Amino acid sequence: MAVEFTLNDEQRLIQKMTRDFVNENITPDIVRQWEHDGDHPHSIYEKMAAQGLLGAPFPTEYGGGGLDAVSYAILTEELAKGCSSLRTSISVHGSLAGSTIKGFASPEQKKRWLPSMAAGTKLGAWALTEPGSGSDAAGMSTTAKLEGDHYVLNGTKSWISNGGIADYLIVYAKTNPALKHKGISCFMVEKGTKGFDCVGVETKNKLGLRSSPTATLAFTDCRIPKENLIGKEGDGWKNAMHVLNHGRLSVAAGGVGIAQAAYESSLKYAAERQAFGRSIGHYQLVQAMLADMDVQIAAGRLLVWNAARVKEAHERGEATRDEWTLAVSRAKLFVAEMSLKVCEDAIQVHGANGYTDAYPVERYWRDAKILGIYEGTNQIQRLIIGRLITGLRE
Fold first, then answer.
1. Which residue among 101, 159, 274, 373 has its CA within the 20 to 30 Å range from the CA of 10?
2. Model pTM?
3. pLDDT tens, position by position, 126-165
4. Domains of the chain with bracketed CATH
5. Which position among 77, 362, 375, 394 bears the catalytic label?
6. pLDDT digits 0-9 by tens, 371-387
7. 152: DSSP letter
8. Catalytic site includes residue 375
């Protein structure tokens, strides 16, 4: 399948629009304050909604921007250059929660939930992980039992981005525990539902993503209308694995953004910092580190764009689900490891100054570390890739 890597005029416009928004509203000093506060002010979401950034990936028929996958990857990269915590919140809203509704909800459900999400008046979250089941997501213990016209949810979800601030939460629970992963179903739980509580939020005590509120959610005899079942009973696991491809593409694009920010900071510092009578950018070992950064970022960006184009081909019926999964896992694995290395080298270029929060490179490194953990660890990506390239599956 031929892949074209040049950007069209619309994609370049989206890149410039997002970059200008970030440069004006998401500066290092602003992000430093957000990290201190452990959250983003509501005003930044309002500004992003007004710019169409929150609704960018949603279908135009529901008021969204209808962006193609490459355009959304570009937008995501630019957001992550400014703040990976905010990028995480936006990706969860659009790539996980939004993609679940768009892909598997009924027409009536889409009309109920998508317009307000596209407008940015309602924020989404996606709750799969539990205290005892991370990579082994199918080992979840949260249950949903049908009683009359309602499902009754009981259980706990952990490490849920947007969990404490979202209006709409996509929640996975077992409707038939005996069937293991085939007994998992997907539900919409709306903020304020009786029996649903946010019982803990991780912010400033995390290594990175300190302004992204990561919540622990409790469901205690939480009754939701049976009309809030998304898809069919037992289809939750299959649907979640599909949606994770969307999320992993956003993570990979965001990782490129973090690395690009670290690289640009290093270029600037190397030109300004003086040692032995001239800027350190004159020295070959520093140039070698900058060259490696440049090459690795370029490779990661092309993997992301390729995965985005394979996603589009899959949606047109021109690529298989396995081809899309392989392209996404390659991109996420490579970028997760590349971004961390680029940020580590950026700290090295900055020397002792890079070890302080006077420069943003220490934050970039902290934020890059999570890329190889959430939405499928590096080890899980290697398992996925290995099974797909060998054709040997359990």
1. 101
2. 0.96
3. 999 999 988 888 899 999 999 999 999 999 999 999 999 9
4. 9-123 (1.10.540.10), 125-230 (2.40.110.10), 236-390 (1.20.140.10)
5. 375
6. 999 999 999 999 999 99
7. E
8. yes
